[in-house]
Design goal:
By secondary structure, the protein is of the alpha+beta class. The protein has twelve helices and 19 strands.
């Protein structure tokens, strides 16, 4: 049965989802809030000029900070996925998000809020490495981990000169361990299975060098268990709070697990994660639109997502990415039509189609997310690189050692007694 969906997007991040729903035969419209990005996806999806969902639409918010609007839409009688003031508050306000973690007894690394002047005074005598964690939906490059207090002082000087860092921010003590995120989907009343975890690479260049891009790609797996240990120790503790907030959508927590097995909460994500959602959907069979409709209406028990394989996604960009502020200089760059040939595994991003030719829209320079499912990360990575090499994308950029740390993460999870990817229910 065909359903109607309306996606409210910041800059077209959710267009790949609209593209899939459209191919399944559902009615889909997308409103893109950023006026500079309203041509993204044209020729592929139906882009609306104003935000005007129709009666009966399931309204999806693909990005944080529109929670007030989402709550108003929900109050008007629409089914809403992925937007709420509750989610905005706890994702964008890091101190508040950490307070929520402590409320449900999730450990948080020693963290304190500072002004620039206060931070400089503190770092003069500090003897440990710290991470800078800005609040608000700021450029991911503003999240910075310094090796020494002096290195952080130099970065603060830069941040002030560029005026990219305003108001208060957090300095968080570095915790050594493996980084992993855990996600579940909550329908306003209960968790809808399966839970999943992600190993993500944020740094732009091989060897974990270069700027923080937010995501260069990732590996995702789902759990056969209905109560995986990582979920029990983190997001499942939110259940009564989420129910009281009537939150509907994905809930993700990024964590560090130290050598003793302690799970340290770093940050919440109350929205779609990119490119984790792309990887998760590669693993999801059947009619996704039907499943999302049932989820929004509280009628779904489990998504048709495999627990026996991994999902892997690699982002492919062109210069000047990740310096996306000047990406408009490459607007109109013609791209290989082959990127439209496999709409399941190749998901256009900063792209529009004109006269049957895909072109770069010039919003950020991220061309496609390309992915696959399988059982071995090294094999999948090689396959994705070979696939990218088939395309004529001028000056294509990828991370060719994507998620090499996956095997370190799995080794530590095994040592500490956590469930591993592709484990059956009986082994958990």
């Amino acid at each position: 049965m065909a359903h109607s969906f309306y996606i409210h997007s910041e800059s077209g991040d959710g267009n790949f989802l609209a593209y899939r729903l459209k191919r399944e035969g559902h009615r889909v419209k997308v409103f893109i809030h950023d006026k500079k990005a309203r041509h993204v996806g044209k020729g592929l999806i139906d882009v609306d000029s104003t935000f005007r969902p129709a009666k009966g639409d399931v309204v999806i918010f693909d990005m944080v900070k529109y929670g007030k609007l989402a709550d108003q839409v929900k109050a008007a009688g629409y089914k809403v996925i992925g937007g709420s003031r509750f989610g905005d508050m706890h994702e964008l306000d890091r101190p508040l998000g950490h307070r929520l973690m402590r409320q449900v007894q999730i450990a948080v690394p020693p963290t304190k809020t500072y002004t620039l002047a206060e931070a400089r005074a503190f770092l003069q005598t500090a003897d440990k490495p710290y991470f800078l964690k800005p609040s608000g939906n700021m450029d991911s490059a503003m999240t910075y981990g310094a090796k020494t207090p002096k290195g952080m002082l130099r970065f603060l000087d830069y941040a002030q000169a560029k005026e990219g860092l305003k108001g208060k921010f957090e300095l968080q003590e570095k915790v050594d361990g493996i980084e992993i995120s855990t996600e579940g989907w909550f329908d306003g009343d209960r968790w809808v299975l399966p839970f999943n975890s992600t190993v993500e690479d944020k740094k732009f260049m091989p060897g974990n060098y270069g700027p923080n891009t937010g995501c260069m790609g990732n590996v995702v797996w789902t759990y056969a268990s209905s109560r995986p240990i990582l979920a029990l120790r983190t997001i499942m503790r939110l259940e009564p709070i989420l129910r009281a907030a009537r939150y509907v959508g994905p809930v993700d927590i990024n964590t560090i697990i130290d050598k003793k097995g302690t799970v340290w909460g770093i940050e919440w994500t109350f929205r779609f994660g990119y490119a984790a959602l792309q990887a998760l959907l590669l693993m999801t069979a059947g009619d996704l639109g039907e499943q999302l409709y049932q989820f929004a209406n509280g009628q779904l028990d489990r998504f048709e997502t495999t627990t026996s394989e991994l999902g892997m996604v690699m982002n492919v960009s062109v210069p000047p990415y990740p310096t996306y502020h000047v990406a408009h200089e490459k607007a109109g760059l013609p791209l290989d039509p082959g990127i439209l040939a496999d709409p399941v595994r190749i998901m256009p991003a900063d792209v529009f189609v004109q006269n049957n030719i895909p072109k770069l829209a010039g919003v950020d320079g991220l061309v496609i997310a390309i992915g696959d499912v399988g059982k071995d990360v090294n094999t999948m990575r090689r396959s994705l690189i070979d696939r990218v090499d088939e395309f004529e994308i001028p000056d294509a950029q990828i991370k060719n050692d994507l998620c090499e740390r996956y095997y370190d993460v799995i080794g530590e999870l095994a040592r500490l007694g956590y469930e591993l990817p592709m484990m059956g229910e009986g082994n958990v």
